[in-house]
Amino acid sequence: MSQTQSATWFNMVGKKKGYSLIALFIIVQIILLRHSFGFDDENLTSLKNPKEKVAQPPASTSNIELVKQSPIIETEFVETDPKYSKFVFENRRIPQSMKSGETVLVISSVVNEEAYGKDRTFDDFFGSIIEQEFPKNSMSLAFLFGTADEYLKAQTYFKKYFKPLNTISDHDKSQATVLQKFVRRVTLINAPFIDDDFSVDRADRHLDNFQRLRRRTIARSRNFVLFNSLQDERYTLFIDSDIVKFESKEMLKIFIESKKDIIVPRVQKGGDLDYDKNSWVGERTKPNAEELAILDKNDWDHFTYVPRDVDANMKHLFQLYNEGRENEYKKQGKDKNSAESDQKIKLDPAYSVQIDSVGGAVLFSRSLIYRQGIAFPPTYIIGTTWDRLEGYDGIETEGLCYLAKPLGYKCWAMPNLVAQHDTG
């Protein structure tokens, strides 16, 4: 090698070493900056997606240990055709070990601001949910909103309560602590296209002539929020937004410990001790020949048939409650008409009766059932043929047991457990 070539080679090596030192210096500075600002690999990964927003963990967490956990991850998804939006809060502060086991997804559909009942808001409804005595660290929440206003209000609500606890007022801290410590994921959905096909005043929603289209909309809503939010949760609990109170705070725990497939409690609305009449066991009417002929023509403007109870062969939950109460008095040898305190009995809250159909005001199920394709029929499935667009019975929750039964699943009522419905 010549002297000139040797000089050139050493110059190249020197430059490479210089580049290497510069690169090493930059890497060290990045590491130091990441450490200073509290970034970890998970944060950097999530920041690559512009739709994801990361809330920093609190500096102080009062009486619960959240500082060492990951932050809240916010993700938004927007679809244009049809138009709907989904906003997800994932609580990474909860340790992975607390996310397994008896996991529950609580679901509700909210048509508009009136759906919570008279003088009630989303805050009131959420408060009734978290009153349940259950290992809430394994609870997820999902809400479907019919209006953009309620959807955005809910976003604001959860953003407020998912903030670091040391930035939250004392008035709100209790609610925020429950949410951050016990709720692993919140899914908010706005899908106005579902309600675009049908709307009715709240006061008229139970009139016969609205039932087919109303129940169809409800079924579509239930299915949409279910399949857009269910992940690894073992159980699913639907609660109507106008349920104001559960008489037993252990209701969810009782459902789970029963090991039953599908369960409903009894629903009271003021003086009506059995409000949700879609929960029943027995026999329903069938269309006559003339009505079936109209059905064969798919002449829905003139098909006015509505399935009714066959009274002699039908029982709803209050009747099942009374039968269970009678049997309990007989079993204990006590007088139900006596005013003496020693003649009173305590009813078993887990008392259950198998039924043919369930309502949806409060509806508990094993999630495995939904994962196999069983859902809420958006059409009347009983009485269908290839020529008919739909049949004459078994829509929405009333079709759930009908579909689940051939797969070996059973529906149950627990009439001693009571949920209170808004009286408005």
Automatic annotation (TrEMBL):
Gene3D superfamilies, sorted: Spore Coat Polysaccharide Biosynthesis Protein SpsA, Chain A (3.90.550.10)
Pfam entry (one): Anp1
Family the UniProt entry places it in: Belongs to the ANP1/MMN9/VAN1 family.
Name assigned to this protein: Uncharacterized protein
